[in-house]
Design brief:
By secondary structure, this protein is of the alpha+beta class. It is 27% helix and 27% strand. It has a five-stranded antiparallel beta sheet with strand order 6-5-4-1-7, with no helix packed on it. A two-stranded antiparallel ribbon has the order 2-3.
Amino acid sequence: MIRRTLTGGLLATVAMLALVPTAADAAPAAPAPRTAVSATVPDLLPAHLLQPALPVARHAAHPATHHVNHRATHRRSHRAFGRVVTYRSPLHVRSGPGTGYHVIGVRHAGRLVALKCRAYGSWVRGTHQWYRLAHVRGYVSAHYVRVVRGTVPWC
């Protein structure tokens, strides 16, 4: 990062000196005598400094000005899946994240389910976390679902 900054600054300085006319360039009285060694700016600089500097992204320098909704892009691009581990009995899908909500469906043991997000709910065998299913507006206890792919964001 520092080398890129120094390279960009050095190239900007060299370009500025090459473009800005000096007093000697404004009205040359006589041609300058040629010297035996004629070195130009590209000859004096190392090769890696002559390559143009990569533009620095605005959001990398100013993270507060970057306006991308990361929660929305994360949910769309990385779908999480979990496997129901209830050992032969069906898993109840509830209308909310807790055992006090109505049962709206079931998922059978071993079934792969798409998970949308996770939320805190009522206590079920050691956990307060519940997963919201992606295709049904229902919740299942995280105790009975093992995430097999992806990460489940918070609701």
